[in-house]
Amino acid sequence: MNEIRTELNERLESIRELLLESMALVATRVEDVTEVLLSRDVAGADRIILHDDEFDLIAQQIEENCIETLIREQPVASDLRTIVAAMHMNSDIERSGDLCANIAKAVGRLQGTQIDDKTRDLIVRMAEQAKVLFERSVEAYSGLDAELAQSIDELDDVLDDLHRDYIQTVIKEAKHGDMVPQQSLQLALIGRFYERIGDHAENLGERIRYIVDGWTPEREGAERARARASAAETGDAVASPPEDEEIRSRGLAVIDSISEERRIDATRRDFVANVSHELKTPVGAVVLLAETMVDANDEERSRLIEHLNQEALRMESIIDDLLELTRLEEFDAVSEPVVIDDAVMMAVDLAKGYADARNIEVAVVGLPSDTRVVGEMRQIVRALVNLIDNAARYSEPGSQVGVTVDPLVEAVDISVSDSGVGIARPELERIFERFYRVDRARSRETGGTGLGLSIVRHVADNHGGRILVDSKPGEGSTFTLQLPKSAAASDEEE
Ligand code: ADP
Counting atoms of ligand 1 from 1, which one is nearest the CA of 439? Predict the structure, then answer.
């Protein structure tokens, strides 16, 4: 037993050291990349891009270590918490590394751009702040200090403010017309990269608090809601959450015991914050583009209009998906018989345009299946379109997407498979959350909203079914929508 414990401790220690090493590496990388950015040192930027795989290597080591520990040592309770958090932290750090590489990639595109003193100064300050955030994460994680971890939120607020000033400055510059619109956009993007590095550090702070005392954002929201509710009952001012030791150590179990209503309250508040955050980017871009257009010549203007159009479409898809989610939440079990074969054909027809545009063939297997379910045709089609769109979105052009209908005894499985990028295990549990994306840049580039899979999950729930996923990074994914067959359909079969 002791031997096992020692090995487990050694493994955990090595995961911890690797995480600390890669966090510190982000802090240094932010500093380096800012230096090459400000001196427009393209060769230096190329060197940084070349070293991007340092992060991937450490991340891979951490992931392997975590998986090995899970398999071999079968950790329980707090050790398990450490490993789960480590896996999430690992991806936040890795993505911060990618963002540094993105900044480096922008250096070449900024050739010939005069960056004025104010913009420069704000870049320097954003970079310093991002670095401080990661240094604070190192400190909080090495001392497992929840308070220090919490202070990361405030540091990130400072970075957000700097980012806001920065965007304003870039817009003003663009209005002066000293810069071609592409360069203004490039600068705006750079600001956004720093801001997102800050968001990842904030996530690290949350994970550290989770390791130390089982804190989760949902729990804090629920505690606030509970405090408000009890204050409303007693007429008191809002009390601070109870410092109950037992509750502190129980972590996730606490969440399960809170009433559904309060949980929804907390989720809704997070949701509003997320929506605002999501819309901020396209709205910011539209403002920037519109302002830039004022003094642009004809050729630039048509390019800007194209960009404007893209951003407007993006906002439209986010709003469209949000409305769909609201409709799904309000859905009152409509019980019309849905012929699965029709739903699948309709979904394939609707998704074909996007797949064709990416040169991806959609092949359907298992029709006719002659199965029916009870529910709403529109919802099922929407869920399938989302799955097929995703399969096409996260695959290489020229590849194939398969849709398979497989009738079981009491249910029907509709699977959508691709041989695309796949999804790593720690991400699998999160992809159904609203606005969660594994790779934000790719999702954005290809028109994703981050809401597609939450819609699919809602549709499955509304039909008493479920959604399953099997995926391997680099090899591809299979999403299966499993819906219970209608009794009428079984009757007919008999
Ligand atoms: P999005 O609009 O970003 O695609 P979704 O909610 O549909 O949002 O999916 C959430 C995230 O799950 C995506 O951003 C992507 O990272 C991942 N994902 C979904 N489907 C696939 C797939 N078929 N292959 C790889 N990753 C996927």
Answer: 16
